[in-house]
Amino acid sequence: MQPYELSLAAAADAIRARQLSPVELVDSVLGRIEKVEPHLGAYVTVTAEQARRAASEAEHEAAHGRYRGPLHGIPMGLKDLIDVGGMATTASSRVRAGHRATADSTVAARLSAAGAVLLGKTHTHEFAFGLTTPQTRNAWDHGRVAGGSSGGSAVAVASGTATFALGTDTGGSIRVPAALNGVVGLKPTYGLVPRHGVTSLSWSLDHVGPITRTVEDAALILTALAGHDPRDPASLPVPATDYRPGAGTDLTGLRIGLPRTYYFDNVDPRVETAVRHAIGQLETLGARLVEVDIPMTRYIQATQWGLMVPEAGAYHERSLRTVPELYQEDVRILLEASELMSAGDYVRAQRARTLMRAEWARMLEQVDVIAAPSVPMTAVGADEETVTWPDGTVEGVSDAYVRLSAPANITGVPALTVPVGHDSVGMPIGMQLLGRPLDEPTLLRVGYAYEQTQPARGLATAA
């Protein structure tokens, strides 16, 4: 096995035992980037020399007993909405031409303090306003969408061109590309990970979280990221926590919510079969299945768009009026649509969110975790704009991908996607686990337990 194939936890163990140096690991991943990145388009920019210098410094520190922890010397990619001082934050948009960040974002600073090595910035759907990331290709099939908006981060992790990466999630933008590329994605509880220095799409829906190869890796990164930052008004005053799951797989006594409504409606049969099989595996590990009805489902789409579109429009108001021609057409149209929404529309969406949060809290008193598909279908072809379901319903691709992710953003509950197999043509399928606010330990425990029962996953076959 080459160093670039290692999970974060395995690489950390090897570095701590002095069996692998950060320089060897970073050189291996940079070599992988050189080989496959031209076919994938995961990165906006690769900072190879800066990464090599940081790896050399990490090696020097380790040799002198200054080991910073499990992220020491581990190479990462950051979605190009996340500020790193002195580097461009392009948001994959011509609007940001010439931009340079003046300081590190909170998450970049925390990862740097933990010893992680920045490889470069990964592509996003322009300003995170989309679910496909068209400039990036799926790691398993270059003719299919990568998913978005954190498509570059997910493809980098799936292809071995980053050991881990960060994404952002406003309506599924971590979980969708993670599921479509066969990796793990975690959207934390709203406010758990600070967003200071991260370009906003929709301030009341935005989250920052990790994309990794394993659940344990996601827990290691969350441990480094979580914690209060007064510069983010939504940041929660939570104590430092070690989120690493225990080694066991016994889920006896745990209640897994099995949705009777919404999450299995208009879902590809191959996706449903794989996810139900995975849920059955959780039952085999001792969990008890409890059927639940998802509340207020008829309001989910309207609430998601009613919050996101006006908030995005407010953020982009000045540049949309001065340089509209610099936006990609799909994003410009959505931003222009925000001007057609009234204050009353936005207030009604906020009220619906308040009611939905209360209903979800009541539902989550009955169960510990809800298990469901992450997305209703695997990655579609890059030129496909709609999907037609067996009942004749025609749905836009982005609408389909956001549909099962949006509830966790509206309510702020944590959500984790883990790979649970492939469809008949080899495209990855993800299972989504949703839990109570700030109960990431339970989500990670369940995801880890399932993962331990499965064969080790390799890198994407087309990468």
Mean pLDDT: 97
Distance between the ends: 16 Å
Secondary structural class? alpha/beta
Q: What is the name of the CATH superfamily of the domain at 3-251?
A: Amidase signature (AS) domain
What is the N-to-C order of secondary-structure elements (H for helix, E for strand)?
A: HHEHEHEHEHEEHEHEHHHHEEEHHEEH
Helix content: 25-40%
**What is the number of strand segments?**
13
Write structural notes for this entry:
The chain is an alpha/beta fold and 463 residues long. It has a domain at 3-251: Amidase signature (AS) enzymes (Alpha-Beta Complex), CATH 3.90.1300.10. The chain has helices at residues 8-16, 22-40, 48-63, 106-113, 151-159, 175-180, 215-225, 269-284, 300-315, 317-322, 329-337, 343-363, 397-403, 406-411, 440-452, and strands at residues 43-46, 75-79, 117-122, 164-169, 184-187, 207-212, 255-259, 288-292, 369-373, 386-388, 394-396, 415-422, 428-435. An eleven-stranded mixed beta sheet has the order 1-3-2-4-6-5-12-13-9-7-8, sandwiched between helices. It is globular, with a radius of gyration of 21 Å. The two termini are 16 Å apart. The model has no long low-confidence stretch (mean pLDDT 97).
Helix/strand layout:
Blueprint: H1 8-16, H2 22-40, E1 43-46, H3 48-63, E2 75-79, H4 106-113, E3 117-122, H5 151-159, E4 164-169, H6 175-180, E5 184-187, E6 207-212, H7 215-225, E7 255-259, H8 269-284, E8 288-292, H9 300-315, H10 317-322, H11 329-337, H12 343-363, E9 369-373, E10 386-388, E11 394-396, H13 397-403, H14 406-411, E12 415-422, E13 428-435, H15 440-452
Parallel strand pairs: 2-3, 2-4, 7-8, 7-9
Antiparallel strand pairs: 1-3, 4-6, 5-6, 5-12, 9-13, 10-11, 12-13
